[in-house]
Amino acid sequence: MSYKLYYFDGRGRGEIIRLVFAAAGVDFEDIRFDLEEWESKYRAISPTGLCPYLVDPVTGKTLVQSGAIARLLAARFGLAASDDQEFYRVERILHQLTDIENLAIDILFGPEEKRPAFKKEFLETKAPYHFGILAGYLREASDSKFAAAGKSLTLADLALINLIDFMEFIGPEAQELAAGFAEFAAHRKHALESNKKLADYLANRKPGALPF
Ligand SMILES: N[C@@H](CCC(=O)N[C@@H](CS)C(=O)NCC(=O)O)C(=O)O
């Protein structure tokens, strides 16, 4: 039996799990669906009524919560921190990224009339603030070149790349803003050079049907 990941045909909250599989070189069934199939077929078999969820062949259980699944797999596949200080730095980055994701969710899925204001605030103040903090963490990690300043690639690297890539769905201004931080491009280059399977996955990734 193989891993089976259930998520929309988009990146959203499923992509970080796909990136962990890609970086680890572990095969999984990538079961993708549209909104209609979600409602008619897949929601009912999700333990929480939400996705992503993962059928784990190791335990036979169906796992939920994207962050918990990604952390579990990272630990299982050697993509977790190797000591308590690195653990803190990985978590610091993951939580900073969650703060940004929450803002992106408001822009894409918040009340329609409020979305332009959310986006304006994101571009003018919130994204520069959060990106600046993340760029500072990368500068601190300069000797290591991995985001959490450890000896090898961790979930923090994957999540950072994923979030910067996600700016595509916010729009060209958000992508430009991220591109203004040279630390992100340098980090991505190093991370991909350290892991060819991840680089191949990103180079060959096809766009999903859903715009998130
Ligand atoms: N904290 C959860 C959030 C899960 C979540 O809200 N999933 C959304 C998609 S990103 C969902 O299932 N939406 C479908 C629905 O609400 O019917 C996680 O990270 O897995």
From TrEMBL:
Entry-linked InterPro entries: Glutathione-S-Trfase_C-like (IPR010987), Glutathione-S-Trfase_C_sf (IPR036282), Glutathione_S-Trfase (IPR040079), Glutathione_S-Trfase_N (IPR004045), GST_C (IPR004046), GST_superfamily (IPR050213), Thioredoxin-like_sf (IPR036249)
Pfam families reported in the protein's UniProt record: GST_C_3, GST_N
GO MF annotation list: glutathione transferase activity
Domain GST N-terminal: 1-81
Superkingdom, taxonomy of origin: Eukaryota
A Gene Ontology biological process term: glutathione metabolic process
CDD domains: GST_N_Sigma_like (cd03039)
Domain GST C-terminal: residue ranges: 83-210
Entry's family note: Belongs to the GST superfamily. Mu family.
Quaternary structure and interacting proteins, as annotated: Homodimer.
Family matches, as PANTHER family: GLUTATHIONE S-TRANSFERASE
Function: GST isoenzymes appear to play a central role in the parasite detoxification system. Other functions are also suspected including a role in increasing the solubility of haematin in the parasite gut.
Name of this protein: Glutathione transferase
Organism whose genome encodes this protein: Macrostomum lignano
